[in-house]
Amino acid sequence: MKCPICEGKTRVRDTRLRENGFKRYRECLNCHVRFVTYEKVDLKSLWEVVK
Q1: pLDDT digit string (tens) for 13-41?
Q2: 36: helix, coil or strand?
Q3: What predicted TM-score, i.e. pTM, was given to this entire model?
């Protein structure tokens, strides 16, 4: 994931499980800004169309 400030690379400092996904604490390796992302799994049915 890119940093929202400088678009540098980030690392995950901590991950917490939530009822509908994950809460990840991230830190930029370039400018050292810390921020939080909320991620969830999106399960959708896949359809195959055969002609």
Answers
A1: 999 999 889 999 999 999 999 999 999 88
A2: strand
A3: 0.72
